[in-house]
Write a structure and sequence with these properties.
524 residues, alpha+beta, eight-stranded mixed beta sheet, 12 helices, 28% helix
Length: 524
């Protein structure tokens, strides 16, 4: 084999997958048909899970000037009444990052591609088209054509299709997608303000649930602002995107001299999920596997979760620490998660997109009553599920399997302070409280053959001070301590993608949890 992994497509999902493959030591080729990063914004939102992945990859610090915490979203009727509010969670942040962000996609893509150059085992090729992907007895053959027209074939153990919503690879195979019954035409307009502090613009994000033309306003980083307009039945997508029509649409908020148009594109917002995400050694990720309407800013997030879920599993299979069948857990875990998130997004879209005046009036009455009974905003991240199936423990009374493991700020034995992930490897972690005897747990880890990549993470007593003679980590704000108390556990086994495999209260239960995980990875 020429490569362990070939990644087709170098958008955010493909570039993230290639970086993760680099971290795991997989010999990787990532290709893209375009010669450079597309210079216009498309995806506009990411969440704390994606920022944590960017932290692990090593780019979170350098993209700080092109991301901004996502503001509260207000849903307002034709008359301006507030019928729903979705707000971000307040600090302390469970994953160490603000729950949601807006960002500039070209800048983030450039950072991801630049980071690829730091992995000696990753090769990136732009201006290169994938002509075909063909299964072999023990891998895949990939036919490439470069910008000069030269063709060659390479072989890989696995291929990751991150080639977008029109995915030529998926289309060639004729794979079926489940239609979740959402298909609406919208125009997306990105502008750069001449004055960032334009007082006439809303300070929050607004969903204008107006029957004449549903629309959305989003505050972006710096001078970047985005509007999304539903296209009316008597309008064509090409005509509505003409400069004169865009100026008319924006005139409600801005005069032409107050902004510069960055991009205007018409889309059909779909809710689709691929029925089969794995074809032998070929896997589909991102828009090639699912398409989500933008009403919860989860489209790109879903794809990067795909990459974070799959790459470490490929590495374990390559090293012999997991069986090839273990890769089936990718689809088993991701489809329910994506489907749930897409359906929630669809429900929000249906609120916004209602065009029937009578139905809209009934919607407004019902939602105003709901707000009167419970005026507290919906917390955005409460709408995102954990894992419900796949490679997670199944133990009676355990509330943690499939949950995202927190990332507190900690102090280590040398007095260094930082986020927990910055002190560990990208493998599994066995986290245990100070009142747990670790000897049986560590002895059980030593029995694994081949040795699993599990890092022990001892926690220190609250209020204690870490030092060289007392290895461990002190939870500075008590975030993890409170999480473990709430979930009634003292030992937690965490997967490389930060989802919890399972937890235990005693060393004996912890030993059995490790054994169960080993059996699940590589059944006898």
């Amino acid at each position: 084999m020429n490569f362990d992994v070939v990644v087709v497509g170098m958008g955010p999902v493909g570039a993230a997958a290639a970086n993760l493959a680099g971290m795991w030591g997989l010999k990787t080729l990532v290709v893209d048909r375009l010669p450079d990063v597309y210079d216009k914004p498309r995806a506009f939102g990411l969440d704390h899970e994606v920022m944590r992945i960017f932290q692990n990859i090593g780019i979170a610090g350098e993209i700080g000037n092109v991301v901004m915490p996502y503001r509260t979203s207000e849903y307002r009727t034709t008359g301006g009444a507030l019928i729903k509010c979705i707000a971000p969670a307040q600090a302390p942040f469970p994953l160490g990052w603000a729950p949601n962000y807006v960002f500039s996609q070209p800048a983030v893509e450039k950072a991801l591609r630049a980071r690829l150059r730091s992995w000696p085992n990753v090769t990136a090729m732009t201006g290169t088209e994938v002509l075909s992907v063909t299964p072999l007895a023990d891998g895949m053959a990939v036919q490439l054509r470069d910008a000069a027209g030269a063709q060659r074939e390479i072989q890989a153990a696995h291929v990751l299709a991150c080639d977008g919503g029109t995915s030529p690879i998926r289309t060639a195979l004729g794979l079926e997608m489940e239609d979740l019954a959402f298909d609406e035409p919208w125009l997306v307009v990105d502008v750069l303000l001449n004055d960032e502090n334009n007082a006439r613009l809303p300070s929050t994000n607004v969903q204008y649930c107006e029957t004449a033309r549903p629309s959305t306003f989003i505050v972006g980083p710096g001078v970047h602002r985005r509007w999304e307009f539903m296209i009316n039945p008597d309008e064509s997508p090409s005509d509505i995107a003409q400069p004169d029509n865009i100026r008319k649409l924006l005139s409600r908020w801005l005069a032409p001299e107050e902004y510069r148009l960055w991009r205007a594109s018409s889309y059909r917002f779909h809710a689709l999920v691929l029925k089969s995400w794995r074809q032998g050694n070929l896997f589909f990720l991102g828009d090639a596997a699912h398409m989500t309407p933008p009403f919860m800013a989860q489209g790109m997030c879903q794809g990067i979760r795909d990459a974070a879920n799959l790459v470490w599993k490929l590495a374990l299979v390559k090293s012999g620490q997991a069986s090839a069948d273990f890769l089936d857990s990718y689809q088993e875990e991701r489809i329910p998660h994506v489907r749930h998130t897409t359906l929630v997004t669809k429900e929000l879209g249906q609120i916004i997109c209602e065009r029937d005046p009578d139905k809209a009036a009934e919607r407004d009455r019902r939602m105003l009553e709901e707000m009167a009974k419970n005026p507290a905003p919906t917390i955005r991240q409460s709408l995102i599920p954990g894992l419900v199936s796949g490679f997670i423990a199944r133990r009676d009374g355990d509330k943690t399997p499939g949950a995202l493991f927190p990332q507190p700020v900690v102090e280590d034995a040398l007095g260094r302070e930082g986020m927990l992930d910055d002190f560990g490897s990208q493998g599994f972690r066995l986290v245990y409280r100070a009142d747990v005897d670790p000897a049986p747990l560590l002895a059980e880890l030593d029995k694994a053959a081949p040795a699993l990549p599990v890092t022990p993470v001892p926690l220190l007593e609250s209020g204690s001070t870490a030092n060289a003679s007392t290895p461990g980590y002190r939870d500075k704000d008590g975030l993890l301590e409170r999480w473990m108390e709430r979930h009634e556990c003292r030992i937690v086994l965490v997967r490389p993608d930060h989802y919890v495999y399972g937890s235990a209260s005693t060393p004996e239960q912890g030993v059995e949890l490790i054994r169960e995980m080993r059996r699940a990875l590589k059944p006898m």
